[in-house]
Amino acid sequence: MSWQSPISPGISWYEASVPERPFYPPMAGSRKADVAVIGGGYTGLQAAYNLAKEGVDVTLIDACRFGDGASGRNGGQFGTGQRAWAEDLEEVVGRERAQLLFDMAENAKRYLLDFAREHAIDMEFVPGQLSVSHKESLEKEYRRHVEVMAERFGYPHLSFMDREETAGRLGSSHYRFGIRDAGTGHIHPMKLLVGLAKQAALAGANIFEQTKALKIDGKGGAVRIETERGTITADRALIACNAHIGNLEPVTASHIMPIRSFIGATTVLTGRPGILPGGESVDDSRFVVRYFRKSKDGRLLFGGREAYTADNPRDISSHIRRQIREIYPALADIEITHAWGGTVGITMPRQPFCREVMPGVVTIGGYSGHGVMLSNFCGKLYADLTLGKDTPLDLLKDLKIPAFPGGTRFRSALLFLALSWYALRDRL
User: Fold this and answer.
1) What is the mean pLDDT of the chain?
2) Cα 201 to Cα 59, 65, 243, 372, distances in angstroms
3) Within a 10 A sphere around the Cβ of 346, how many other Cβ atoms?
4) How far apart are CA 137 and CA 122, in angstroms?
5) Is 197 helix (H, G, I), strand (E, B) or coil?
6) Alpha-carbon distances, residue 370 vs 10, 74, 101, 138, 384 (angstroms)
7) CATH topology (fold) of 10-74+190-256+348-407
8) What does the pLDDT average to over 152-159?
9) One GO molecular-function annotation for this sequence (predicted)?
10) Which of 107-121, 177-191, 249-263, 313-327 has the lowest mean pLDDT?
């Protein structure tokens, strides 16, 4: 029987299609550790794995099950670079730092592919990503991006697609043009998550599900984490809760905003070879982005609605179907077999948030929809930092990430108003 996440709506196709998803026990009583990790998504589990394999005593807890949050329910797209285009990031942080941040993301891509290969994790990697535009006015910007990435950032894997090529690769004439990225791809996120948790446990990490952190205190030379099932005392700690931070730690909560994103999986597209014939994933230029791809068994996995409050739409399927119909009219009546949502952590500038929030306690998150490869790599980088190795994690610590206005009480309402305006602009 498929598991219903208590923090994310709907049964995901990923959950239904993964061969196995083992339960891990809750913590039983108080414990001591060298490092405590709060959050069992990609960031936390990668940190636990990389520390444990070096002999560090690690205890990891998650309030629910590993993969109940974004790590097990996302769109599966790697992307390239950071969330912002490299040339846009250059305007904010300068040429040298923009290059370093881009190189960091490329290393993240290589790390994740190597990790899956080393441990024989079949995460169903498929190469290729298409970034397409719904507005003619963006053509110059898209063409320039291809040139800049090759000439200034040393990334030759992008090619501009005119309207004809875009239509051919999508099987739809809805979009004007786009960029094909042959240097990235997409995966089955839950298969990666399950394999990662297994490797963390095999490496010797003590990993516990259904153990909620209630309070964290970094005073007095040790970190104390109070949970529903006992207290963890550690030399240092990583907060890897991302969008699910709640009231646990105020600095993280003020800088990372939770938003809901929703995905639907159709029945298998039998007799429709013209839809995404190359198997690439797709994301578009809307502010409220639409993203879609085909699964290994030939379903259309389509995401395209966001919510900025804790409320969920009553019928996720109907929202998803309307957007599918705009792009693929022939699929207007196709059955949606699974519809689900998850919570993504975003920051104001859409750049990752990394800070030491109290002595010995680091928080990492806010990948802003670009976390499949970055979150895995950041978990590894936190382990490297703890082990005294050279790490580019300071690049993220130095980013100027402002807190959201309005505090945790009013920020959702303010963001809803602002983003509703951008969503309206998408339709103009």
Assistant:
1) 93
2) 10, 14, 24, 21
3) 26
4) 40
5) helix
6) 22, 10, 13, 22, 22
7) FAD/NAD(P)-binding domain (3.50.50)
8) 98
9) oxidoreductase activity
10) 313-327
CA distance 378 to 345: 15
| Burial bucket for residue 247 (CB in 10 Å: 0-12, 13-18, 19+) | exposed
Can you tell me the distance from the alpha carbon of 129 to that of 170, in angstroms, rounded to the nearest whole number? 11
- As a whole number of angstroms, the distance between CA 263 and CA 203 comes to 33
What values do phi and psi take at 178, rounded to 5? -175, -175
- Residue 77 is classified by DSSP as B
Residue listed under structure tokens 């991302």? 242
Greatest alpha-carbon span in the chain: 65
391-409: burial string, b at 16+ Cβ within 10 Å, e else: bbbebbbebebebbeeeee
Question: What kind and span of H or E run contains 164?
Answer: helix 163-170
Structure tokens at 391: 């790490």
Q: How far apart are CA 39 and CA 345, in angstroms?
A: 13
Question: Tokens representing 100?
Answer: 């370093």
Q: How many CB atoms lie within 10 A of CB 389?
A: 11
Structure tokens at 138: 């963006």
How many residues would you count in the chain?
Answer: 428
Q: What are 401's two structure tokens?
A: 């990430």
